[in-house]
Write a structure and sequence with these properties.
The chain is an alpha/beta fold. The protein has ten helices and 14 strands.
Length: 321
């Protein structure tokens, strides 16, 4: 019998820009009692661990942080994967697929060899495809492999809409779904600010503002390219998204977040992981929430799913060779 006192342990694989930002945000919010960092560059991981520990006196709770090995995954509640090749300026997320599929096959095998039986949280791009690959490589139940999906896209959307309408992000209820990438789509038909449909807010501003609101989605879709061009990589926003998902899991919140989830008939789609609102609990994805999409939104969503499915099938076939 395991007499170890049960605490929440999160293991991070990949201490690059996104991973180290995730670690910093996790410590600042005091989400887990134990936080383990694994990276091929062991000196970098050691340096991050030292740096984080030096700030623990100012954190809300004391988190045990150390540089670990794959064997530390055995007792982990969550393994968050941020490892992989980075998106270069001008490169789409989908162009990363072959490089990162190969990397993931190796590291997921090492995690599972430890006896890991928790939840995978995937951040590496292309996140929808790598979420599906992680489930395939691990053999874990589909509800226990979660991708960051369109959580960041949705956060960007809410932020930009809140700035335009001069209201708090917390009162903007609007989703981006589909691929975390170029075929994503805004769900205008269900979007509200407070309890008022978004389209009513647009009408109050005048018909000429409709194009402004459409342009907001275009800015959301292209935000990563803009940030990468300016500073080389995106990491703060996605790190905060990962912390939000981690908190929803460990606190068993039953929160609805737009994660990359496996579909099994929802929205008339199967056998693909894609960004959709889903209820997140201690056991992972409890349920995919089906929204009442307009006919145009349904077509766009199916196009996004087919794009991901085609690329995943091609990449999976290549990985087997």
């Amino acid at each position: 019998m395991d007499n170890r006192k049960k605490v929440n342990r999160v293991v991070l694989i990949g201490a690059g820009f996104v991973g180290s930002s995730y670690a910093f945000a996790m410590m600042n919010q005091g989400i887990a009692e134990e936080f383990v960092m694994i990276d091929l560059d062991q000196a970098k991981a050691s340096g991050d661990v030292m740096d984080l520990n030096h700030g623990l006196a100012f954190a809300p709770v004391s988190t045990k942080i150390w540089k670990g090995e794959y064997q530390d995954c055995k007792e982990a509640d969550i393994v968050c994967i941020c490892a992989g090749a980075n998106q270069k300026p001008g490169e789409t997320r989908l162009e990363l697929v072959e490089k990162n599929m190969t990397i993931f096959k190796g590291l997921v095998s090492k995690v599972m060899a430890s006896g890991f039986d928790g939840i995978f949280l995937v951040a590496t791009n292309p996140v929808d495809i790598l979420t599906q690959a992680t489930q395939s490589f691990s053999g874990l139940p589909k509800n226990r492999v979660i991708g960051s999906g369109t959580t960041l896209d949705t956060a960007r959307f809410r932020h930009m809409l809140s700035e335009y309408f001069n209201v708090s992000e917390k009162n903007v209820h609007a989703y981006i779904i589909g691929e975390h990438g170029d075929t994503s789509l805004p769900v205008w038909s269900t979007a509200t600010i407070g309890a008022v449909p978004l389209q009513q807010w647009v009408k109050k501003k005048g018909a000429s503002h409709s194009r402004d609101v459409e342009r907001i989605y275009e800015d959301v879709r292209d935000a990563a390219y803009d940030v990468i061009e300016k500073k080389g990589a995106t990491y703060y926003g996605i790190a905060m998204s990962l912390v939000r998902i981690t908190k929803a899991i460990l606190k068993d919140e039953q929160s609805i977040l737009t994660v990359s989830a496996p579909l099994a008939g929802e929205y008339g789609i199967s056998d693909v992981c894609i960004g959709v609102p889903a209820i997140i609990t201690r056991n992972g994805i409890h349920e995919v929430v089906e929204m009442d999409l307009s006919e145009e939104e349904q077509e766009q969503f199916h196009h996004s799913a087919q794009t991901l499915k085609r690329i995943y099938e091609n990449a999976a076939a290549t990985a087997k060779k």
